[in-house]
Amino acid sequence: MAIRKNTATTIVGRTDRLSPRTSMKIGEVSQESGVGVEALRFYERSGLLGRPARSQSGYRLYDEGVLERLAFIRKAQFLGFSLDEIRHIISDAEKGASPCDNVRAIVRRRLAEVSERIKEMQRHHRELTRTLEEWDEVGRAPGNICGLIEGTQMQNPSPTSVRVTPKKQRKKTA
């Protein structure tokens, strides 16, 4: 991992944790970490990253520790932690408290939720298999829109199994 040395920039801000010899601008951090520039700014605003030092011209200047922090955030996200949970984990660690017990509790809850979703998906799979077998026997069915769907004798779907796309996320069609 190459870190560009920046000795010509005077660093303003948190110089206690940043040396001018190991500073990176936001674009360099983005390139090294694979995290987009806007995501880096969002992480900073959200408290996941500390406020970086600033150059005299206002550029954010990060030390190499930011790469470790970003790797931690990405691993935690992969494990299913929300950004809010990650922020609390980081905060606890920065206060000197071990967040490991809380992390295990969160993962236990998440595992129970995943297990429940798996059961629901297995029920849905059985229902779809049974329905398709019935439809294959019937062929076509008369109806207002599609007789196969209208005539289906399935249980009402749970609210979590029916997805409705919020208005702001829908693609506009002309």
Q: What are the main properties of this structure?
A:
disordered N terminus, 4% strand, elongated, 3-stranded antiparallel β-sheet, 174 residues, 50% helix, mainly alpha
Walk me through what this model shows:
- With 174 residues, the chain is mostly helical.
- The two termini are 47 Å apart.
- It is built from six helices and three strands.
- A three-stranded antiparallel β-sheet has the order 1-2-3, with no helix packed on it.
- It is elongated, with a radius of gyration of 25 Å.
- Residues 1-21 have low confidence and may be disordered.
- The chain is 50% helix and 4% strand.
- A hairpin with a 4-residue loop joins strand 2 and strand 3.
- The protein has helices at residues 26-33, 37-46, 65-78, 83-94, 100-138, 147-150; strands at 11-12, 53-55, 60-61.
What is this entry, summarized?
With 174 residues, this protein is mainly alpha-helical. It is built from six helices and three strands; from the N terminus they run E-H-H-E-E-H-H-H-H. The longest helix is centred in the last third of the chain and has 39 residues, at 100-138.
Counting copies of identical and different chains, the oligomeric state is single chain
Widest sheet, order of strands: 1-2-3
Percent helix: 40-55%
Q: What Rg, in angstroms, do the CA atoms define?
A: 25 Å
Distance between the termini: 47 Å
Write down the secondary-structure element order: EHHEEHHHH
Unreliable spans: 1-21
The number of helices is: 6
Rounded mean pLDDT is: 82
| Basic shape | elongated
